[in-house]
Amino acid sequence: MSDAPTGESSVVLEVSGLSVHHGQLCAVEDVSFSVSRGEVLAMIGANGAGKSTLLRTIAGLHTPSGGSISFEGADISRLAPHRRFARGISLVPEGRRLFSSMTLEENLLVGTTKGARGTFTIEAIYELFPWMRERRRSRVWQFSGGEQQAVAIGRALVANPRLLLLDEVSLGLAPIVIERIYDVIPRIVAEGVTVLIVEQDVGQGLKVATRVHCLLEGRTSLTGVPGELSDADIERAYFGASLHDSERRAGGGA
Ligand SMILES: Nc1ncnc2c1ncn2[C@@H]1O[C@H](COP(=O)(O)OP(=O)(O)O)[C@@H](O)[C@H]1O
Ligand SMILES: [Mg+2]
């Protein structure tokens, strides 16, 4: 146990100078940020900016070429993925990766772990997503994209993580479905879970986040609090200044 004071600002995740390569390609370059308990950090950025690489590296699925990752005060940079999971880090990967021939409930059972007792029992997941109860014996391949995404989140939650990593929850879903999924995030946070979401949809990210971190070609291009960032700042950080300006020139009649 740490002897740190139980203040509101207790840091759950600290990423320092993190770099990650895929072969020759530097996908994440010298990225630093921290997330405190109860925060929702939105990692935004265009396609290929390095968001998934960053999230997967935190979960232990890529080995960093530099920098460090610490979780609740301990350096986890060298821990295997299952050890990070056991410590309380759960990833909902891009593309969901469910067991599609298994039932909804079987998918949730896969996520439960012996040690991890907590609020998020399977019953609690059915309270979070009431439609699930009736369909718990249905096979997951029959579900819509949005329903599958909810199952993927439920599967991550039944492990009772203290850090939940969500990668592109909104990808390919209709706006109303996205909204329903994002609706549960405040309830997850209220249970003491710290959330790191990756979003390509900036508007969605800003809506739920307490802080935003933007990546541009693997590097940090902007960090801040949603209400304090201008649209122009975000646009520039997301697309890059030169692209932003040249697009404006190309599209600008006025
Ligand atoms: N497993 C991989 N092998 C090789 N290159 C990869 C791999 N995963 C991602 N990349 C490359 O790394 C860069 C960042 O990708 P990614 O992290 O998936 O970005 P994002 O999630 O922001 O779209 C891209 O150029 C992508 O092509
Ligand atoms: Mg991605």
Elements, N to C (H/E): EEEHEEHEHHHHEHHEHEEHH
- Mean pLDDT across every amino acid position: 89
Q: How many domain modules? A: 1
Helical residues, percent: 25-40%
Strand content: 25-35%
Count of runs of 4 or more consecutive helical residues: 11
**Span between N and C termini?**
61 Å
Shape label: globular
Can you summarize the main beta sheet?
A: 6 strands, mixed
List segments where confidence is low: pLDDT < 50 over at least 5 consecutive residues. Answer: 1-8
**CATH topology-level fold name:** Rossmann fold
Concise synopsis of the structure shown:
The chain has helices at residues 51-59, 81-87, 104-111, 122-128, 131-134, 145-157, 175-183, 185-190, 202-208, 231-239, 241-251, and strands at residues 11-22, 25-36, 40-44, 66-71, 74-75, 89-92, 163-167, 194-199, 211-216, 219-224. The protein has 254 residues and is an alpha/beta fold. The longest helix is centred in the middle third of the chain and has 13 residues, at 145-157.
How are the SSEs ordered, and which strands pair?
Blueprint: E1 11-22, E2 25-36, E3 40-44, H1 51-59, E4 66-71, E5 74-75, H2 81-87, E6 89-92, H3 104-111, H4 122-128, H5 131-134, H6 145-157, E7 163-167, H7 175-183, H8 185-190, E8 194-199, H9 202-208, E9 211-216, E10 219-224, H10 231-239, H11 241-251
Parallel strand pairs: 3-8, 3-9, 6-7, 7-8
Antiparallel strand pairs: 1-2, 1-4, 4-5, 9-10
Helix pairs in contact: 3-6, 10-11
The structure holds adenosine-5'-diphosphate and magnesium ion.
